[in-house]
Amino acid sequence: MSMPTIREVRAYTVRGGGADYHDQGEDHWIDGQIATPMGKYPEYRPHRRNFGLNVLGTLVVEVEATDGTVGFGVTTAGELGAWIVENHLARFIEGTRASDVEKLWDQMFNATLFYGRKGIVLNVISGVDLAMWDLLGKLRDEPVHQLLGGPVRDELSFYATGARPDLARDMGFLGGKMPLVHGPAEGDDGMERNLAHLAKMREAVGSDFWLMWDCWMSLDVSYATRLAQRAREFDLKWIEEALPPDDYWGYAELRRNVPTGMWVNTGEHEATRWGFRMLLEMECCDVIQPDVGWCGGITELLKISALADAHGRYVIPHGSSVYSYHFVVTRHNSPFSEFLMMAPKADRVVPMFSPLLLDEPVPENGRMSVSQLDRPGFGVRLNPDCELARPFTH
Ligand SMILES: C[C@H](O)[C@H](O)CC(=O)C(=O)O
Ligand SMILES: [Mg+2]
């Protein structure tokens, strides 16, 4: 088959959930009181949306091939991301062969180095890369997991992230990762409250269920060390993203400080093989957690994952829904997956990118069969009921 080229790239934005999963309505657990780096300012403590956690919104990138086939990818980047795609990246995307993902990634990354490297620019590059893999799967009539070498197991197993690990246990998940509520600025009282909550959850779930804390970059080494040491009594499996992402030295110290057997996990706000190289070579963590929509997409994740494998480390992607599932099932060093509980009260399973996608698979009883992923590309469709805007054209 002769490979089509890309005829047009289009960048859309959409609000209300989707890839910007923090862009939820009032009273959603994910936007409630959670420890954050802004928690030192009391006015920004009660609600994460107060400091703008949801300002970006979702970016949808569509790539249309010369034969009319369309692939798409979604990420967190909104209008800023749409501007970058339409005004800068389009020149590399249009005219490229649909299978030339490697060359395209290299061009997008190098052309944006002077203002990119991490953060929103890498989210955008990821979104384009995911659209290209989706297109390639559709053109070849194969699921992306087949393009990546094929599954190494028949099903995926999930832990749940949300405010109600006790309910996640009843839903068949392997474990529950809770948001840490109180940060260092809330002193000893906050520390005691955090521990009391963990104790209560351990009591509720029993001893054979993983419990983890997601600290969303909010702590310092001293606080995280004390928290981890005291959490040993309640068998905390891992402490996640305890420190700001740039504090590689702090992570290395924390990893030396935590009780034997407790994992230090991080990486959802890290990007590219070079960022993860720092985490791995400095022995910052036990598990890396790249977000497929933020770290550079599938093309970059393949490199990050190989590097982690050579360091004997697991890759358990952050969120990422189908982008994670198609990848994880092809790697031996990705033995389980995250599922983010998007129901406002974390009391039922709702697709992570809801309501933006149709056919988005979800775990049943904490598991997902590979057969649920057996559709061309990433196997999902854009929901026509979600109103997309195209703020810029080129
Ligand atoms: C719950 C966390 O604060 C965040 O919203 C999600 C996250 O970090 C994770 O799923 O991991
Ligand atoms: Mg996290």
TrEMBL record:
Its cofactor is Mg(2+). Homooctamer; tetramer of dimers. The lineage of its organism: Bacteria, Pseudomonadati, Pseudomonadota, Gammaproteobacteria, Oceanospirillales. It catalyses: L-rhamnonate = 2-dehydro-3-deoxy-L-rhamnonate + H2O. This is L-rhamnonate dehydratase. The keyword Ribonucleoprotein does not apply. The record marks 291 as: Increases basicity of active site His. Residues 161-261 form the Mandelate racemase/muconate lactonizing enzyme C-terminal domain. Reaction proceeds via a syn dehydration. Belongs to the mandelate racemase/muconate lactonizing enzyme family. RhamD subfamily. The record marks 338 as: Transition state stabilizer. InterPro entries: Enolase-like_C_sf, Enolase-like_N, Enolase_C-like, L-Rhamnon_dehydrat, Mandelate_racemase_C, Mandelate_racemase_N_dom, RHMD-like. Keywords: Lyase, Magnesium, Metal-binding. Substrate binds at residues 22, 48, 338. It is an enzyme of class 4 (lyase). Transmembrane segments: none annotated. Mg(2+) binds at residues 214, 240, 268. Catalyzes the dehydration of L-rhamnonate to 2-keto-3-deoxy-L-rhamnonate (KDR). Binds 1 Mg(2+) ion per subunit. It comes from Kushneria sinocarnis. Its EC number is 4.2.1.90. GO terms for biological process: carbohydrate catabolic process. It comes from the Bacteria. One of its GO terms (molecular function) is L-rhamnonate dehydratase activity. The active site is at 318 (proton acceptor). The keyword Zinc does not apply.
